[in-house]
From TrEMBL:
<dbReference type="GO" id="GO:0016746">
    <property type="term" value="F:acyltransferase activity"/>
</dbReference>
<feature type="domain" description="N-acetyltransferase">
    <location>
        <begin position="4"/>
        <end position="154"/>
    </location>
</feature>
<keyword id="KW-0808">Transferase</keyword>
<dbReference type="InterPro" id="IPR050832">
    <property type="entry name" value="Bact_Acetyltransf"/>
</dbReference>
<protein>
    <submittedName>
        <fullName>GNAT family N-acetyltransferase</fullName>
        <ecNumber>2.3.1.-</ecNumber>
    </submittedName>
</protein>
<keyword id="KW-0012">Acyltransferase</keyword>
<dbReference type="Pfam" id="PF00583">
    <property type="entry name" value="Acetyltransf_1"/>
</dbReference>
<dbReference type="InterPro" id="IPR000182">
    <property type="entry name" value="GNAT_dom"/>
</dbReference>
<dbReference type="InterPro" id="IPR016181">
    <property type="entry name" value="Acyl_CoA_acyltransferase"/>
</dbReference>
Length: 158
């Protein structure tokens, strides 16, 4: 496995446009949102000192590998659950090298370091084995208009 770094987007702001582009293409473009709107959401990560949101970027030097965010809510059907690991993206050439596992773990660890006892994420059902293999507990399936699965990870005891 090639070595990567996982950084807060605030420490690597030159990745902002790439992060916004990948997230927009994967989830927002089809819904009619503009790339500029999505870039604006990620730009908020550069200046906020709030607990949420936060954006992580995986990289090898200046090569973008992937991203994951920590946000307050990712499913309007479950407003009481927080925080969410969201917008997990790994560039195709870096997939199947455990980089997705690493950035998801880093986002969950960030949630725990910020005082949360658990973190949630949602994904399509074909990702169930991947997240279960990382220790995430499957809570629900077929939630919302995209029939997503919901997972929970609890902070380590101690």
């Amino acid at each position: 496995m090639s070595t990567i770094e996982i950084s807060d987007l605030r420490d690597q702001p030159h990745f902002l446009e790439t992060v916004a582009d990948r997230v927009w293409r994967a989830w927002w473009q089809e819904q009619g949102e503009s790339l500029e709107t999505v870039a604006g959401l990620f730009a908020e990560n550069l200046t906020t000192r709030e607990v949420l949101p936060a954006c992580l970027v995986a990289h090898r030097g200046d090569d973008f590998v992937g991203t994951a965010s920590l946000i307050a809510s990712d499913l309007e059907e479950r407003p009481a659950l927080a925080p969410w690991v969201a917008a997990v993206w790994i560039e195709p050439e870096f997939r199947r090298l455990r980089h997705g596992a690493a950035i998801v773990a880093a986002a969950a660890k960030l949630a725990f370091s910020r005082g949360f006892a658990q973190a949630y994420l949602c994904a399509e059902s074909d990702k169930r084995a991947f997240y279960a293999g990382l220790g995430w507990r499957h809570l629900e399936e077929d939630v919302g208009p995209y029939a997503l699965d919901i997972f929970e990870l609890r902070a380590p005891a101690g």
